[in-house]
């Protein structure tokens, strides 16, 4: 698998990065995890506008899905006058309604479904293209999913947004790469069931036996070096900060 960080800023974009969005590729199949603010622009550095094969939305906070409205425009009002075939979109209950409402004025209430084929995510195991994926509810104020993606004997786990979560430990069990949010700072913010700090992300990786930890979703007002240091204190494996346009071979 190849993972490309399209955007990794948490909660709102930074000067350097779009919000959450990660491209996962294998066997020529392109799966996008989340499409937060600014992701659609950045995505075009990495693949053609119409080259995605599926999209997975971890939850419906704007920093994970709002560029789906822009992508609707690109697929529905193609410059050649045609419309794109429906692209599989996996998201929580109510994804189509939320995106339609966010767009505010789609031609009809069902216009989104002309270019997106919506699938409701539940906890479980299913196939997306060549990938076997496992989803579990994680600890966040809205219905939110962590996801484990397996292909060719390798595994990638993405936390989405979550507080401390045993389900996330299981999803990240022995993962070759664990892409984990670390939005909070240890000793500063302490709100349960919302986000992890660097220490909690590191502890989750240690409990899971993950092989490599990449910290992501760090907001512009959080010092990433503190979270990196905190994670390293509790996790012995390699830890680094996600940066836009970085790729990983998994
Ligand atoms: Zn978020
Ligand atoms: Zn969120």
From TrEMBL:
Pfam families in the cross-refs: Lactamase_B_2 (PF12706)
Residue ranges constituting the Metallo-beta-lactamase domain according to the UniProt record: 18-217
Database matches in SUPFAM superfamilies: Metallo-hydrolase/oxidoreductase (SSF56281)
Gene3D superfamilies on file: Ribonuclease Z/Hydroxyacylglutathione hydrolase-like
Span of the signal peptide: none
Domain of life: Bacteria
SMART domains: Lactamase_B
MF terms in GO: 3'-tRNA processing endoribonuclease activity
Name listed for the protein in its UniProt record: MBL fold metallo-hydrolase
Organism: Streptomyces echinoruber
């Amino acid at each position: 698998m190849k993972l490309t960080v399209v955007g990794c800023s948490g909660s709102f974009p930074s000067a350097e990065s779009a919000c959450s969005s990660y491209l996962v590729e294998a066997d020529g199949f392109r799966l996008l995890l989340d499409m937060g603010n600014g992701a659609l622009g950045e995505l075009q550095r990495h693949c053609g506008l119409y080259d995605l094969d599926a999209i997975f939305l971890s939850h419906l906070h704007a920093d994970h899905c709002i560029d789906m409205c822009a992508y609707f425009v690109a697929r529905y009002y193609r410059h050649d006058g045609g419309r794109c075939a429906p692209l599989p979109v996996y998201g929580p209950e109510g994804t189509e309604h939320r995106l339609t409402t966010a767009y505010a004025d789609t031609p009809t209430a069902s216009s989104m479904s002309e270019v997106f084929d919506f699938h409701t995510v539940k906890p479980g195991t299913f196939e997306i293209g060549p990938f076997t994926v496992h989803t579990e509810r994680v600890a966040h104020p809205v219905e939110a999913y962590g996801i484990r993606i397996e292909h060719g004997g390798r595994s990638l786990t993405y936390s989405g947004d979550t507080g401390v979560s045993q389900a996330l430990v299981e999803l990240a069990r022995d993962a070759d790469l664990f892409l984990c949010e670390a939005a909070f700072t240890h000793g500063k913010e302490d709100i349960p069931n919302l986000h992890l700090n660097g220490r909690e992300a590191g502890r989750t990786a240690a409990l899971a036996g993950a092989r490599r930890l990449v910290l992501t979703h760090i907001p512009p007002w959080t010092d990433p070096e503190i979270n990196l240091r905190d994670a390293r204190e509790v996790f012995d494996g390699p830890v680094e900060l996600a940066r836009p346009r970085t790729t990983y071979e998994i």
